[in-house]
Amino acid sequence: MDALAENSFEFRPHDLVPDAAREAISDGVLYEKRPARRADGSVAEGLYNAWISLNNPSQFNSYTTAMTKAVILAFRKASNARDVNAVVFTAVGDKAFCTGGNTKEYAEYYAGRPQEYRQYMRLFNDMVSSILGCDKPVICRVNGMRIGGGQEIGMACDFSVAQDLARFGQAGPKHGSAPIGGSTDFLPVMLGYEQAMISGVLCEPFSAHKAYRLGLLTDIVPALKVDGEYVPNPLVQIDRMTDDWGRIVHGEAKTGEALAAGKALLAKGEMDLSLLDERVEELCTKLLLTFPDCTTKTIEEIRKFKLETWNRNKEDSRAWLSLNMMTEARAGFRAFNEGNKEVGREVDFVGLRQALAGGAKWTGQFTNSLMPGAGE
Q: Which of 119, 131, 191, 322 makes a 20 to 30 Å CA pair with 113?
């Protein structure tokens, strides 16, 4: 403490904007510093973990343009904070970490406006880069499903700890886009090519158990309590557990009667994310008990495998995604936004392919004809 006092001086700020200006644009994103703790649970005075939380639970924590700006500034703030040990990136509620970009905003503003979407994608790229460039280790606290762009910003993090009811996956080719906001860069590195194809092209989601087995997650914990006791995800067939909290070697979705029984158990239980918070806190403590500069350098070196492909592709991807807002994205985002459970939220894929094979043009009338229920 004496040495600290002797070296005290007035720091220069390195944030992009002052706190007062930042607060004015942070709607939908929460920033909080929580005390860092030693292994015995005692508070490490003057040290913190920065929690950045998406706060749009009514729309499954999908990020709007304003939220994207706020995430960038929040990561910049946490990265520069001299008293921050680690960053926890999470969201409000227990249903979703993030389902990607806000489809309502996409459908009603960006669809058909490629120049506007190009500017938006600059913000998205900067959001991913702010995670990959953070000077502190970043933990994704997966409080619920991590889909689409939510999966991309989650995979940009250094560690991921999930509650085991969470689902992971992509939605691009099903909803008019391609997962080139990071998934096509990160998935082959993290999962291998075959599993990247299953997730990216077929849009088949992974359970938290499968994601853990494939190496997409650092850890998983149960979140469902039945009669006061935690139980592993009842919708997943667990072949062999490695400990009491649901870490598994293999797990696939149940079917038939087993699935029905699992759903009944799920309906009977209640969600409790206390174990998730404990496991995240434990990881933060492990990071606290390391040399800070050595930790930062190690993380930077390991990130290079993701950064190399991300930096090589992000600008071309931005250009393609912008132009795609005139064709398939315009149709896909509108279908999701205008559809419902009765008529569905996807276009008529067979009709689309048949029409394109016959030489159809992407006119407004053609797009309208692809909307759910348009042919009824």
A: 131
